[in-house]
């Protein structure tokens, strides 16, 4: 017996025995494995990668050693990536190999389980938004926003190439949008915000008949709950522009329904349910009106019947997609985030509507209560914007924000620096137990 | 009344699993919220199963789903290989679950791992620099084509066309269009490879890039690859490598050595990260030195033993809101570390042997060759889609059907390295049984899975995309 750290030869996941390999080579009339490669000598690779094979235990130890260099911080961080507690049952059920190791559902008769789960995911987003069509995922909120922009150009009856986005927007999101806007030659422009919310009169000045889409967020990247969504929607529609709203499923459980404020498309990150903190790994939510159905990017699951007249599910309207429509497809997306969507649906179902509403209300009260406590600290004013907040808020610090961030890191806490004297703080149930120590640490470093 | 918990009931019984919304739902009115009424919705209606019900629901759904651990999964072009369990434990580590906005000084472990993975992928592809940011293969294509565009614009040489062979993946065409290029489709030659004369006629001052898969979707190595590279480069274009079929070449040939300038890696195909029923994937992009200045922002580099993010001089910007699909990248790293040089080489060898062996055992005609990791058989007089449904009755997942179109009634088959000889023999027996079945048997298939043949036309004609849209609830 070899010990568990012994060096392996060959792939441990290629299960042929040497005898089988020999038999098979004979069956195909080949002398050896190398002769199967039809690679001209001039481009053949005869070097080494120089990558040593490790045992499973050694590979795990190596990752543990590397990741051990990450500082152990309690993160009061958000700005588009949130940590909510994910129950064990989600990990347990999503890890079932029939889900985890399956492929896109090209053979629906043997993929009914995943298709139904995705159909349920789509249905939950329909309930949360009030809009008729949800796809079963984009990569993340930023790429979903990019897809919304290109959709606005496709569905708009008059020409227009301006995409208006809020002044307060995560830089990464805007950068992704710019790449999506590049091919179709759309222009991305910012409109002003005042005291944390959209400056509607200023937006009125910015918008024109050449505007294809207006994007707004609630909550905003600063955690502010937008107060005039209907006015923004009306303004967009006055100019035949689409109104795209950015949000997330937890916020949507409590805030105004997108359909009621005139949203045409809802995008955002849905991994805040089901996945938690994962270095920005997300789940792009994409929901829109039924009238745009045939212009939707990505996979759609629909209900149908099987030959025995029983309800069954299948990927549908695939003529929108790249594998059928090629360069005329609505998007190039193929592999998406289906398994992440499965987790989100599981988590939402586990919470139920009362659990979701409670969680969302906690996001409001936790932000409010923490801001109140920070406002009592000498050298801190919080929240900067006198608005309702969701999960997070901006605080002004007399000390430079960079010093606050560095000093807090030394005490084991992380917050965002978003300006010279502005920090942003996010509070969820996962940081609740550390709140007292965090407040005490900030009191020390904010002096 | 239906007793839907009785899973052992006869095949003829109605065994479908009710929707969550049909099992337990609740409407919650929103009042006494901490927000003013005009900022909140009125109510929320969603399923409300207790945890035991939830567990049974999803367990039942999983039983109605076929994965790699259920049996062979020879979907051509998809490389559905076994996904090692330990990589799941690696990705689930608590110290991997960090927020992307932390300062670099507090994420040295994650950055070190990313740096090492960039390095490994560079060595495997023969590329000088690699970004991990694209969240899937198609996103990698988009990144690569945007890099090509930035390169040409940087040289004040705007170009309008991307050339793509007719046998290429649909994503190539869609990607080029998304980036604003006109697509020039290149007909394949009689041998299933790039037709050199057609390529020479197609290239010109407007050629931004040629996107090529090698071995191509027929499993054929493009033997003239150096000539192809010269033609494209002489016209001022770049050569893009679609990494979908890299599992066929590990350690035998590298895109960088063949003359490719930009490439993407499909980590679920080449490095065994699970496909998750549609994703998540990751599509790292490798480039040669001259193009490194255009890589997405940020990129990871080492400075005096520490790791940091930086913005490349002429970066195309971002293709993902943060740093890509990090848990998938972690699994990729773990897999590469487990296999090393020898394991990666062995995986390719066994993938190619398995495809050749299976092709030899089946009775359907297999045109073209010699192939590598996959082959495209022809169902001949049979309808390939019907043949696939019939294979389900023999207990295996069928191949990809009716694509690529250059083979009539295509059965595109890729067994991967993960199958034993015994398993391949069973797979061949399933192919051969179907080959001998009548059209009527094919048209009635499948009869054994929970769902019988599903009516796709009605689903598209009368779209019902949510439980709210069902009229039978």
From TrEMBL, chain A:
Entry keyword annotation includes Oxidoreductase: yes
Keywords per UniProt: Oxidoreductase
Positions of the Glycine cleavage system P-protein N-terminal domain: 13-434
Keyword Oxidoreductase: yes
Pfam families from the UniProt entry: GDC-P
SUPFAM superfamilies (UniProt xref): PLP-dependent transferases
Gene Ontology biological-process annotations: nucleoside metabolic process
Signal peptide: none
Membrane-traversing stretches: none
EC number assigned by the record: 1.4.4.2
Classification via InterPro entries: GcvPA (IPR023010), GDC-P_N (IPR049315), PyrdxlP-dep_Trfase (IPR015424), PyrdxlP-dep_Trfase_major (IPR015421), PyrdxlP-dep_Trfase_small (IPR015422)
Source taxon at top rank: Archaea
Single GO MF annotation: glycine dehydrogenase (decarboxylating) activity
Protein name, UniProt field: Glycine dehydrogenase subunit 1
UniProtKB/TrEMBL annotation, chain B:
GO-annotated biological processes: glycine decarboxylation via glycine cleavage system
Keyword match Oxidoreductase: yes
Stored InterPro entries: Aminotrans_V_dom, GDC-P_C, GDC_P, PyrdxlP-dep_Trfase, PyrdxlP-dep_Trfase_major, PyrdxlP-dep_Trfase_small
Keywords per UniProt: Oxidoreductase, Pyridoxal phosphate
Compositional bias (Basic and acidic residues): 1-10
Region Disordered, annotated ranges: 1-50, 438-473
The protein's enzyme class: oxidoreductase
Aminotransferase class V domain span: 147-276
Catalytic activity: N(6)-[(R)-lipoyl]-L-lysyl-[glycine-cleavage complex H protein] + glycine + H(+) = N(6)-[(R)-S(8)-aminomethyldihydrolipoyl]-L-lysyl-[glycine-cleavage complex H protein] + CO2
Residue ranges annotated for the Glycine dehydrogenase C-terminal domain, each copy included: 347-437
One GO cellular component, as annotated: cytosol
The EC number(s) this enzyme carries: 1.4.4.2
GO MF term list: glycine binding; glycine dehydrogenase (decarboxylating) activity; pyridoxal phosphate binding
Any Pfam family the entry gives: Aminotran_5
Alphabetical list of NCBIfam families matching this protein: PRK04366.1
Entry protein name: glycine dehydrogenase (aminomethyl-transferring)
Organism: Haloarcula vallismortis ATCC 29715
